Amino acid sequence: MKNKLVFAISLLGILAGIATAYIFSLTKPPLPPVFDPASNPYVSGIYGEGIVESTQTSGENINVYPEVAGTVKQILVSEGQEVKQGMPLLLIDDSIQRAATEQQKSAAQASHAILEELNAEPRKENLDIAEAQLVSAQATLKTAKDELNKQQAAYESDPRSISKDALDSAINAAAMAQANLEVAQKQRDLTKAGAWSFDIRNQERQYNALDKSYRSSSALLSKYTLRAHTDGVVLSINTVVGNYVSPQGAYDSYTQGMSPILVLGAPQASLHVRCYIDEILVPRLAPPTKMKAQMTIRGTNIKIPLNYVRVQPLVSPKIQLSDQRQERVDVRVLPIIFSFEKPKDTNLYPGELVDVYIGN
User: Fold this and answer.
1) Per the confidence metrics, is the pTM higher than 0.70?
2) Does some domain include residue 178?
3) Which residues contact 77 (CB under 8 A, 6 or more apart)?
């Protein structure tokens, strides 16, 4: 009885093993792909990797860098916002530069006040004093001459009536009064003539130098406000309030490199694709007037026809990933720019990589 039970259990184990092996040996049909890989729509097309960009008449997106260094004080825009030319985007702390500018402004204003004072001479009050001193000197001379005439008349009538010293003193007093009158006349003429032309020119040069210094400082002060150079859309903001920025940009903690403070692009009703063609394939490109192209959005089956815009006529080293300063390889590529209308029902943004085929 016991042997029969063992035999039955063994038989069940064998049957279970055979069933399990059969089940796992069955091949399941593969799942259909979510999207088809990019295919060449042309008989002999050239493949190139492309990157979506905002529409620009030349170059790429606008990378905004400050011309001065400092701490970000305020960010006035947000990502995706449309901006107009001249609109302020970001403020950098300008307290030190503003104080220096105000100081130079005050110095220029003080110098200009001195120049105006020189041009306004003679001052009426000073001229009145000079005229009064001249009148006083004339009266003193008349008194001295009258006294001298009396002394001389007395001496001529009777030399014993007056001493020779008294006569000499009267003569000296008259001569001194005459000299004082001449000094008063020259002082009056000097006051009436106003400021010396050399003093005015020297003060003009000092004022011009201080005024230009103030204007230069004001121009530098305006650099602490980053403004939009053209109409566009804010594509990205790579800093926050309190961060230190410089003309090299802002430090990116993810890439551990320097990034532009802001990136601006054109309004995104239409977009560009910058396609990189391997230098080996460049001779096979069709003429621009006959060039046809199509791009495929990665992760979808969406295919969009492209319109030729221009060639950037410079074959340069291909750049991989995002570290443009280090990740260079020997492969060289020719950039070709195409345009297309942005699909309304598809999310597509500048910076995305796409697959491009160019018919030849």
Assistant:
1) no
2) yes
3) 83, 87, 89, 90, 234, 237, 262
